[in-house]
Amino acid sequence: MKIGITCYPTYGGSGAVATELGIALAHRGHEIHFITYQQPFRLPSFLPRIFFHEVDVGRYPLFEYPPYDLALAVRMHEVVLTHKLDLLHVHYAIPHATSAWIAREMLAPTRPDIKVLTTLHGTDITIVGQDPSFYAITKFSIEKSDGLTAVSRYLKTETSSAFGCAGERIEVIPNFIDPAVYDRSRYEPQLRAQMDAGRKVLIHISNFRPVKRVRDVVDIFARVTREIPSVLVMVGDGPDRVDAEQEARRLGVSEHVYFLGKLESVAPLLASADLFLLPTSSESFGLSALEALATGVPVIGTLAGGLPEVVRDGETGALCAVGDVEGMAGAAIALLRDPERWQAASTLAADDARARFSLDEVVGQYEDFYTRSLNGTHEPC
User: Domain check: are 148 and 240 in the same one?
Assistant: First the structure.
């Protein structure tokens, strides 16, 4: 198949999944065309059967805000015609599904067979899509997609409830990991080599948006390190990084909190970690948590959104109510104080992640989804 993929190319779970999906599909012999405004951050400079088409947004004095969605639609139209694509697979309902629908309308006279498939990742449904400014266009874009997937059962339910779409149209295809990449035994303990070997390593990876509650991350760590000497590694960046830094200073733990910024490869860091902290207030799936589990790192998180579908509470980690910093810190301390229990959780975490979310299994589900979509017809919600 010849597949066009559009995603946000910057740091974040949806872009990472879309890019890894494209790479895996190319390895299986498909031809992949990424169509977006810059090269996806997890896409190397060259791979066989993978092409990148940059969307150029013109700068004109008339446009205070350049219309990226229209420029994207034009680029999609051009790539479909030039490279004879079979389908457009877009990640996020807006603006990507909207742009794909425009491109499909433009293509109708010459390529009426082109399919638009949309994967819903989270904030496009739970936050942005439900904003009054975007609700109608989000609903329209979902309804006009020829096929829909959601990354969790939670997100499928949320979409059906918020937009009135028939739930049976949305297929749940989860995020995934490459077991080979997240094999703990592959990596030297890089973090431990640079830090006090006697301290436990706690890690958090996110885009530091308010929903990730990074102050809670620091607060949990502060409570843990009072009982068990530890360090906290913060990977990523975003609007709340300054708040996290201030919280570390306020609590007197800043000398043991390390902010590493945005990093493309996190598996080597996870291989040195003892626990992963994710006290998020909303999580449609929790890709960073899955990556931690696959590396054998138990997750301390919240009973939020789709996270309970990834983390087995009491087995591969612990989940508490949003804001229950004391409860999460207590769960972390209990695990770290019991080496046998930690080892059991670590082993089960890696095994479970591989059994339920392996790349080969999930990419196969997408291939089947593509085939059925190409052979079927669009049924509105």
Answer: no
Q: In this predicted model, what pLDDT tens digit does every residue of 272-313 receive, in sequence order?
A: 999 999 999 999 999 999 999 999 999 999 999 999 999 999
Does residue 369 contact residue 171 with C-beta atoms inside 8 Å?
A: yes
Residue in the structure block whose two tokens are 């006009």: 144
The torsion of the CA quartet 72, 73, 74, 78, rounded to 10 degrees, works out to 100
Q: Do 263 and 288 sit in the same domain of this protein?
A: yes
Contact in structure between 291 and 182 (CB atoms under 8 Å): yes
Cα-to-chain-centroid distance, residue 318: 21
Q: In what order do the strands lie in the sheet with 200-206?
A: 257-261, 230-236, 200-206, 275-278, 299-302, 317-320
39 plus 117 within the same structural domain: yes
Nearest to 305 by CA among 328, 279, 282: 282
Phi, psi values for residue 52, rounded to 5°: -120, 130
The verdict on residue 381 lying in a domain is: no
pTM for the full predicted model: 0.90
Domain, as residue range, for 166: 2-176+359-375
Contacts of 54 (CB under 8 A, 6+ apart): 36, 37, 38, 39, 75
Q: What CATH code is carried by the domain that includes residue 135?
A: 3.40.50.2000
pLDDT score for 130: 62
CB-CB contact of 315 with 336 (8 Å): no
